[in-house]
Design brief:
34 helices; about 15% strand; about 1150 residues; alpha/beta; about 40% helix; globular
């Protein structure tokens, strides 16, 4: 059972909201919707006349008429939109734009001054027609098709000049209204420029086709372009794909009894979600990672009745205000969900009958979303100078939707059940031995928009079929089927759609079969282009490539046959009327200035004509070709104008051309009708398509993570729930504790020995001390990342791990001041600590680095001590690191807090860090050594040491120094003195069709190759085992990688012998420890995109190299042709003494 996308929720919304609501709550000057003082002179505004004083000549009836037209009454709804545009225009900075703005009059939505040239709004003219379109979508830039241009006037022209880099029509003349536009071929670039700057665009197209004389062409709204939602009109008829950006929602924020509420509405998907109980830091983190189209702030955010929007100037709310202050936003009131949906309908012109589906996933038992500081300090939100967690979780070649899924999962950790499912799925993926699909990723928003607007073309249908076929491929494979089933719940959480497994499979089979019945897939050769020996091939290519090869011929057989007959008739007409003239010209010889003529394709006019000169005979003598010359007439274009002096045609050829174009247009119309009909059929299955596409995105993300995790030698942690019944955090059965053995910084390659591993066994709160550069910050960052990865179901950078499912993970590191909010760094730190303490529970992980560093030492130490007591009383797990050693002299009331330190050692009389976690307290800061290492002059260092010893002579007595050395000597090996962050390490559109004849030939050949490989390699292994005098014998098991498949993660780090089956029926034999990378490299070459492979795994590179050489030398004897025969000459490569113990061959 699954939920219908458009039938889940019915929202009742009021049809009208008075603009007086806006007038009662005027906004700050910082926001995008601040009313102009000129327009708001009175508190009770019923109507406003917006016109300028103009000098009108006496007796000028036309001027008087225009002035009357300009005195139009603006009502509330129009006035609000004009104020909105005025605020946008105030941000324009180009001199040319500023000059255009001066010619605007805000008496209508277009901003036209009717007293200027071309400014008339007379009913029936183009300006009036554009005003009607503008009134339907008043907050969108209007582009109207006029011939070969898309034009904008008034306010919209100013926006085009400012943001699209276009020049105004007519220059900067002051007697004409602002006008600008772009050629038809540049429409896509213009739309991209406008949407990238946050504007929505309404596009008006002309009705194509002949019109009567002196009649205006009909126009219609063809579509819209929004940020995150491109313009798709006409895509069904083209032969290329369109990139879809990440959809941008409309976001509303309000205050509730539980905390902060954020509502997100996606116009493209017709969905909305709400999340309540957020902290201020978590809310700001969501705003930082969400590229939204519009931001609305609820009036519940205001803390006082005076109307000011600077809420929370001291304390809570300041961080959110600082985030919103730099952005455009508008106020709203009432029910947050209902009112925001009303705003969305108003913004996008959506009818009341359109239903928005609620995709909110219940948040019970889910960990709290990450705070902004936590997300930035571990690189979940990319931050300069911080190692990016996303870049080490996935391979560098994994991009797009899978990366976005992983990022969202980290920022919003799942419930325990989902995290356990994700981990179990990853474990299955890690053990898969069969080849895996490529996992075609399609944006759900793209699917919904193209199918809803009936604009999906044949390329998109092939991609949809790829998605469906990959789901079915996983279902039919026993190993992958378990993975497919386990991905159902994570996909439900990601989409809000609950789909039954059997329903998914059955619907995918139906949809895939329906597409296969309609769409012409790769390899079908029954739709060749028409051809003729006398007509240039480019003509037929341009005319027929627009519709051939899109749907199967059986559906357009009648239209197809008519086009073939029309093409034959055109070829006959050209042969009869033009060819005799060509023959006559070729037979005529003249040394200079002789006759010339040829049959050419006039691409601009979509015609085949005769082009020649000096071909008419001086004396008509009845010779061959004269009759055809007499039939020639000048060629004319579609507007009846003569094309040129050298272009000619005949009545018969023109009739044949007209017949051919008519047949071709009819065929194209039939193809588009069939494609749009298929879109309508699949739209009824949109939930299944969205679910399937998202499932493959998740599958690709998890497979990529497992592959990278195996390469980095990461492990799966033991994930468990907190013991709710036990109040003692130090329970003996291992619950309510976190243990990380062999933990390494996530940004370092621990497998290469470039990191110091630590063991962290955390039962309670830990007070951590250590020297500068000793690894405290790196340890906290590593623990935070590992805990987060664990509760999300991912692998962690450790040798083994036990991680409880925390209800929140909070990391606080260094703070900076915020001048915009008038806060010092210590104020910012205290604000973050306040949020951290109020959000912590006994099931939380709290990590604080160098607490209270930004204030006076004595009082800062006491504040830090009090915070430690509070966290100890809460009973959370965590670490608080500090250089405030006076905290150990305070009478702290703690019960479970432990003291640990980052170890040091003495080498050549100097104290150095070991970067290892030990028990105890470390009072050595290595401050002088650190300052010296960073280039502070020696004189300053020496003076500092003198001052230190004179002021703190008691603390640094020799007895205490020796005591510290004995207490903290760790005996580790010194690798480096730095604690610096090392920088992290850096589809085809064809559908799957396994039933074609070419596929059968490939299968037969693959079996022959597999049999030969098995015989050759098995014989060699028998010889090796006889030499070892052992009875154990392992069989060679070849695994196939199909044309649109890739190796499983189990091949990572294993020595593989592989054979590539090239399209030219030749073989390539190779050996590698990175099979996935080698397959990708081979397929990146021209003509190799769909090659298949056979491989088997052996223990050790030496054995693999021997078998590679053996195959290269023996396969030609079996009748196979190889491309790398020369590699077989290296017979002695890798023939060192073999160790056959535990040498499995898979």
């Amino acid at each position: 059972m699954f939920w219908l996308a458009a039938r889940s929720v019915v929202v009742s919304l009021p049809k009208w909201r008075s603009f007086s609501l806006l007038l009662r709550t005027p906004a700050s000057k910082c926001i995008s919707f601040a009313p102009s003082p000129l327009l708001l002179r009175s508190r009770h505004v019923e109507r406003i006349y917006c016109f300028k004083d103009h000098k009108v000549s006496k007796g000028s009836a036309r001027g008087t008429k225009k002035l009357k037209a300009s005195s139009t009454v603006l009502h509330d709804k129009d006035l609000s939109h004009i104020i909105w545009w005025k605020e946008r225009l105030q941000q324009c900075r180009k001199p040319s734009t500023i000059q255009l703005i001066k010619r605007l009059m805000y008496s209508n939505l277009l901003g036209l001054d009717v007293n200027l040239k071309n400014g008339s709004l007379k009913e029936g003219n183009l300006n009036w027609e554009m005003l009607q379109f503008k009134s339907k979508f008043p907050r969108e830039v209007l582009l109207c098709r006029v011939g070969d241009f898309y034009e904008a006037i008034g306010i919209d022209a100013c926006i085009l000049v400012e943001y699209a880099g276009l020049n105004p029509f007519g220059g900067l003349r002051t007697d004409s209204i602002p006008r600008a536009g772009c050629p038809v071929v540049n429409l896509r670039q213009t739309l991209d420029d406008l949407t990238c700057n946050g504007y929505s665009v309404c596009i008006v197209e002309e009705v194509q086709g002949p019109t009567q004389a002196r009649s205006r062409k009909g126009r219609f709204i063809s579509g819209h372009a929004h940020p995150g939602s491109p313009y798709v009109f006409g895509l069904v008829g083209v032969d290329h794909d369109l990139d879809f950006p990440e959809p941008m929602p409309v976001v509303g924020i309000s205050r509730s009894a539980r905390g902060y509420l954020i509502v997100s509405v996606l116009e493209t998907m017709k969905t909305y979600s709400s999340e309540d109980g957020l902290t201020e830091e978590a809310l700001v983190a969501k705003l930082r990672t969400c590229r939204y189209h519009h931001l609305f702030l609820h009036t519940s955010l205001r803390h006082n009745p005076s109307g000011t929007c600077r809420w929370g100037e001291f304390g809570e709310g300041g961080l959110l205000w600082g985030e919103c202050n730099a952005r455009h936003f508008e106020w709203f009131e009432g029910n947050p969900v209902t009112e925001l949906l009303y705003k969305v309908r108003e913004l996008y012109g959506i009818d009341d009958g359109v239903v928005f589906r609620n995709v909110t996933v219940p948040s019970e038992n889910r960990p709290r979303p990450l705070h902004l500081g936590t997300a930035t300090q571990i690189g979940a939100i990319p931050t300069e100078g911080i190692p990016c967690l996303l870049k080490v979780l996935l391979p560098s070649n994994c991009m797009g939707l899978p990366v976005l899924y992983v990022r969202d999962l980290l920022l919003n950790p799942p419930a325990y059940e989902i995290a356990s499912t994700i981990q179990a799925t990853c474990k299955l993926m890690s053990n898969v031995t069969c080849s895996i699909p490529e996992f075609t990723c399609i944006s759900p928003a793209k699917l919904v928009k193209l199918l809803e607007l009936r604009e999906a073309n044949h390329i998109e249908f092939c991609r949809i079929k790829n998605v469906l076929d990959e789901i079915l491929h996983m279902h039919r494979n026993s190993e992958l089927c378990e993975i497919l089933k386990s991905l159902m719940d994570p996909t439900w959480v990601a989409t809000g759609l609950k789909v039954d497994f059997e329903t998914l499979v059955n619907e995918c089979e139906w949809a895939s079969g329906r597409i296969c019945e309609m769409i012409s897939l790769d390899g079908e050769i029954d739709q060749k282009l028409s051809s003729s020996s006398v007509i240039p091939s480019e003509f037929f290519e341009d005319m027929e490539c627009l519709w051939k090869g899109r749907v199967k011929r059986v559906h357009i057989e009648e239209e197809f046959a008519e086009v073939e007959r029309a093409a034959q008739a055109l070829s006959s007409a050209v042969t009869e009327d033009f060819l005799p003239i060509i023959s006559r010209i070729k037979a005529t010889t003249a040394p200079l200035g002789g006759p010339k003529g040829e049959i050419l394709y006039a691409r601009e006019h979509e015609a085949v004509w005769f082009k020649g000169k000096r071909f008419a005979p001086a004396i008509w003598a009845g010779t061959p070709g004269e009759e055809q010359i007499k039939q020639l007439k000048p060629a004319i274009d579609s507007k009846g104008r003569k094309v040129g002096e050298e272009w000619f045609t005949t009545i018969k050829v023109e009739d044949a051309l007209m017949r051919y174009h008519g047949a071709s247009d009819k065929a194209k119309a039939k193809v588009l009708e069939l494609l749009r009909g298929l879109s309508a059929e699949l739209q009824s299955k949109i939930n299944i398509l969205v679910f399937a596409s998202m499932l493959l995105v998740i599958a690709k993300a998890l497979f990529a993570h497992v592959s990278e995790g195996r390469r980095r030698k990461w492990v799966f942690p033991t994930l468990f729930r907190f013991n709710k019944s036990s109040k003692d955090v130090k329970s003996l059965d291992g619950t309510n504790r976190m243990k990380l053995i062999g933990l390494s910084p996530y940004w370092l390659e621990a497998a290469e020995g470039s990191a110091v591993r630590n063991t962290v066994d955390m039962h309670s709160l830990v007070l951590l001390t250590g020297p500068n550069g000793g690894g405290k910050s790196s340890l906290l960052r590593s623990i935070c990342a590992s805990a987060l990865l664990g509760i999300c179901g991912f692998m962690v950078p450790a040798e083994s791990a036990m991680i409880p499912h925390f209800d929140s993970i909070m990391l606080h590191m260094k703070s900076y001041d915020s001048p915009a909010d008038g806060k010092s760094s210590f104020q910012v730190e205290m604000s973050e600590i306040r949020s951290l303490i109020t959000g912590a529970s006994s099931r939380s992980l709290v990590l604080v680095d160098e607490i209270c560093r930004g204030t006076e030492t004595a009082k800062g130490t006491c504040i830090a001590g009090s915070i430690v007591e509070t966290l100890d009383n809460i009973g959370c797990l965590g670490i608080v690191s500090t250089h405030l050693h006076g905290i150990f002299d305070l009478p702290l009331d703690t019960k479970k807090t432990e003291c640990k330190a980052m170890g040091t050692e003495c080498v050549d009389g100097q104290t150095r860090p070991t970067w290892r976690l030990i028990d105890g307290i470390c009072r050595e800061s290595l401050a002088f050594e650190t300052a010296k290492r960073e280039g502070i002059p020696e004189t300053i260092i020496q003076r500092a040491e003198d001052l230190y010893f004179s002021a703190y002579a008691v603390e640094v007595s020799s007895e205490r120094i020796e005591e510290r050395k004995k207490q903290f000597y760790s005996g580790g090996t010194v690798n480096s003195f730095h604690e610096a962050h090392f920088p992290p390490r850096g589809t085809t559109a064809g559908a799957l069709d396994h039933n074609t004849n070419s596929g059968k030939v490939e299968v037969i050949e693959r079996k022959d190759v597999e049999s030969a490989i098995t015989i050759i390699c098995q014989r060699k292994l028998i010889e090796l085992y006889k030499q070892k005098n052992t009875s154990e014998l392992l069989a060679v098991h070849c695994v196939a990688i199909g044309a649109r498949e890739q190796p499983p993660p189990s091949t990572i780090g294993s020595s593989c012998v592989y054979v590539m089956l090239r399209p030219d029926k030749r073989l390539y034999v190779g050996v590698t420890d990175d099979l996935e990378g080698r397959v990708r490299a081979h397929r990146s070459k021209e003509g190799m995109h769909h090659v298949s492979f056979l491989y088997f795994i052996v223990q050790g590179k030496s054995i693999a190299c021997q078998l590679e050489t053996l195959l290269i030398n023996q396969l030609p004897n079996k009748g196979f042709q190889l491309t790398n025969v020369a590699d077989g000459k290296h017979r002695n490569f890798g023939t060192a003494n073999l160790s056959l113990e535990s040498m499995p061959v898979h």
